[in-house]
Amino acid sequence: MDDVDFHLISLRPVGGHEGLRRAARRRGGKVMAMSPRRIALPSNGQTRRQLLDALTCTCVVFTSPDAVRAASKLRALKAKRGQQFFGVGEGTRRALQRVGVASAKAPDRMDSEGLLAMPEMLALKRGDALGLVTAPGGRGEIARQLQMRGVRIVRADVYAREPVTITNATWQRLRQVLDDATSPTFLALSSGEAFDAFIAQTPSALSKRLRNVTLVAASDRLAALARTHGFRDIRRATSARPQDLLAAINIA
């Protein structure tokens, strides 16, 4: 096997592993890409209309950097006077800033619960509208909690996550990584949907061994999800950003 200090399994979408790779290399590690999904960008008229409607709201929430990138390809993103754009996490806030929304905000606690606790979200009242720029299945807790308070959600699904079949050759490489007794293996968890898709594809011969790796969860919700799947050695990262996931691994 490679002469590395540790291996890090990444479940990010196809083509989305580079940030983790750079962060892992700086600490002497190597990322193993195990993508169970890819990002698809629809550009039909319905998607454009949904986005236009969402962007008319006073508060607009983007649920991921992918949502920002997809939306910015459909139309220029610019906060109007009195309008506020939010990212669920710091990575999304920075993505908004890169496309020109300098005033974008993100919660200190970088997850759905942290966003909902922001003063601007707490100030929303019955009858108000919130734009939610996301993907099918994404961040359902935000919409659910706000709708319970009578807030109208104007949703724009600007990209889709399509399933990817992990190849037998990739599973064989994972088996070799798990066989490497000289380097510990970690699993980075930043998406519950990706995690469920990965677990569903895991060969039975690897299932028990996989649950012996140390899992690094980007939120309490994801840590709880990992426990339901039988993982016990779980570390909590402060966010899904690569540097925060690697900091939780704590290998110098």
From TrEMBL:
CDD domains per record: HemD
Spell out the InterPro entries in the cross-references.
4pyrrol_syn_uPrphyn_synt_sf (IPR036108), 4pyrrol_synth_uPrphyn_synth (IPR003754), UROS/Hem4 (IPR039793)
Does this entry carry the keyword Lyase? Answer: yes
| Pathway per the UniProt entry | Porphyrin-containing compound metabolism; protoporphyrin-IX biosynthesis; coproporphyrinogen-III from 5-aminolevulinate: step 3/4
Which ranges carry the Tetrapyrrole biosynthesis uroporphyrinogen III synthase domain?
Answer: 20-246
Record-level GO BP terms: protoporphyrinogen IX biosynthetic process; uroporphyrinogen III biosynthetic process
Q: What is its EC number?
A: 4.2.1.75
Q: What's this protein's function?
A: Catalyzes cyclization of the linear tetrapyrrole, hydroxymethylbilane, to the macrocyclic uroporphyrinogen III.
Output this protein's name. Answer: Uroporphyrinogen-III synthase
